[in-house]
Design brief:
The chain crosses the membrane at residues 6-30, 158-181. Its EC number is 2.7.13.3. Residues 215-242 form a coiled coil. The chain has 461 residues and is α+β, with helices and mostly antiparallel strands. The chain contains eleven helices and twelve strands. The chain has helices at residues 5-53, 59-69, 105-117, 145-197, 213-261, 264-268, 273-296, 314-326, 350-371, 401-405, 422-433; strands at 73-78, 81-86, 94-99, 123-128, 137-143, 310-313, 334-339, 345-348, 375-383, 387-394, 437-444, 447-455. The chain has a five-stranded mixed sheet. Strands 7-9-10-12-11 form a five-stranded mixed sheet. A two-stranded antiparallel sheet has the order 6-8. Helix 1 runs antiparallel to helix 4 (145-197), helix 5 (213-261) packs across helix 7 (273-296) and helix 8 packs parallel to helix 9 (350-371).
Length: 461
């Protein structure tokens, strides 16, 4: 009960209402004390009127008048003359004097609280103004015990009334909050629990219906989250199915390519100089294709295998990449340019770095071919103090907006029609495995530039 939101709301409401009632109680008790003493002044003034009517009063009548007014003495000042109108014996000397002619609220509250705390019976003097302008000033002496008992009785009644008001108010507020807030929250929680049982079921996505603005915003956000999650789960299932199919295809393709490797020995034995020159590149391409099939089998299971780092000749690697892509540019006015420092070596996995650079160069070549106007693909490398920087640029038409928004996301960052978007996603993953970065430097109507940064030390870029 007390750990629930409704229980805590009920308790807090009751406490806050009680605090408000206490803040009302303090000035109320001060006002009661002031009215009590003013009432005694009025009674004393009425009693003094009898003496004004007849200068000689019977002592018994005078005592009765004072007892009825609940005072010991009455002093009335008229025409600048201070007269003792009625008097009787006082049990003790006057302890304090209170002037009620123009008191401040803080003084009244202070004196009232002090009187409530002080239980000792005292005789006090009270000064006030006579009613109906019956004189300049009236003074009385009175006991404090009856006034204190009256104040305590009034305070108890105020506290009881405050407690009843607090309980009723808290209960009504609890019912209102339960209807307006707690039930809608419970409904949202129920939707979340039902959705968690079968998140693939789009029928379980919440339909916002709350009338409270904040709850409606929460329901809208929950619906968006559930919709995105359902779509992601469906895509994950499709990717799992695709991964299973790709694994089977890669397995069969690997067997085919392995068989093709058996014929490369005879090709290398050919006396044709062109064949002898192209045979090593063919062997290298088939070997890379076999390795790609093997690594693809692990694509849907986890992530790319970690790189095996060695020192690689960047110029030779880039030459292999360019030679492979140059064969696909026959009939197209596409040229290749390389600016690589002589003898530059980089620390990387040669197969994975080849895949990254081949993907970037292939994308650049396809972009130029899609425009049909030819162009140039440039490769530039720089040996810096802490990193190796490799840039691949082209003079193509630039990347479309969709490809820029989802550049390194699988199946979303395809830059050409029919592309899967896997190439750049895999390339970025391979570069991250080296502790490096692959990023887009620029893309516009003048061309596109990608930058590959590899660290020299053990830390990541």
């Amino acid at each position: 009960m007390f750990n629930s939101l409704s229980g805590r709301l009920l308790i807090l409401t009751t406490v806050f209402v009680m605090i408000a009632e206490v803040l009302i109680f303090v000035p109320s008790i001060a006002r009661f004390r002031e009215d009590y003493m003013l009432n005694r002044l009025e009674r004393a003034q009425i009693a003094s009127l009898a003496l004004l009517a007849d200068d000689m009063l019977d002592p018994a009548l005078e005592a009765e008048l004072l007892e009825n007014a609940q005072v010991f003495n009455v002093v009335l000042r008229r025409d600048e003359v201070r007269q003792l109108m009625l008097s009787s014996d006082m049990p003790q000397t006057i302890a304090q004097t209170y002037d009620l002619r123009d008191p401040s609220a803080l003084v009244l509250i202070r004196d009232a609280l002090a009187r409530m705390v002080k239980a000792e019976n005292e005789v006090i003097r009270v000064i006030g103004s006579p009613v109906r302008e019956a004189g300049l000033q009236i003074e009385i002496t009175m006991e404090t015990a009856p006034m204190r008992m009256a104040m305590i009785d009034y305070g108890i009644r105020i506290l009881i009334l405050s407690a009843v008001i607090s309980i009723v108010t808290a209960f009504l507020l609890f019912l209102a909050m339960r209807a307006l807030l707690l039930k809608p929250i419970a409904r949202v929680v129920g939707h979340m629990q039902r959705y968690a049982e079968a998140p693939e079921d789009a029928r379980r996505i919440i339909k916002p219906s709350a009338s409270v603005t904040e709850l409606r915003e929460a329901e809208d956000a929950l619906r968006t989250l559930q919709t995105d999650l359902t779509q992601a789960l469906k895509q994950k299932e499709r990717l799992a199915q695709l991964g299973s199919a790709v694994s089977k295809i890669s397995h069969d393709l690997r067997n085919i390519l392995t068989s093709a490797q058996l014929f490369t020995d005879r090709i290398e034995a050919s006396k044709d100089p062109i064949v002898r020159r192209m045979a090593p590149k063919l062997v290298g391409s088939i070997t890379r294709a076999v390795h790609l099939c093997e690594s693809t089998l692990a694509f849907g299971k986890a992530e790319e295998p970690g790189p095996t780092l060695t020192m690689v000749s960047l110029a030779e690697l880039l030459e292999d990449v360019v030679e492979s892509e140059r064969l696909a540019t026959v009939g197209h006015d596409i040229s290749f340019g390389a600016d690589v420092p002589l003898g530059m070596m980089v620390r990387a996995d040669p197969e994975q770095l080849y895949r990254v650079l081949s993907n970037l160069v292939r994308n650049a070549r396809q972009a130029l071919m899609s425009r049909g106007q030819g162009g140039e693909i440039g490769l530039r490398a720089e040996d810096r103090d802490a990193t190796w920087v490799i840039e691949v640029s082209d003079t193509g038409p630039g990347l479309p907006m969709k490809a820029r928004d989802h550049l390194f996301q699988p199946f979303q960052g395809g830059a050409r029609k029919g592309g899967s978007g896997l190439g750049l996603a895999i390339a970025a993953e391979l570069v991250r495995g080296h502790g490096g970065q692959l990023k887009l430097v620029k893309t516009d109507e003048d061309g596109t530039t990608f930058r590959l940064i590899l660290p020299k030390g053990d830390g990541a870029v």
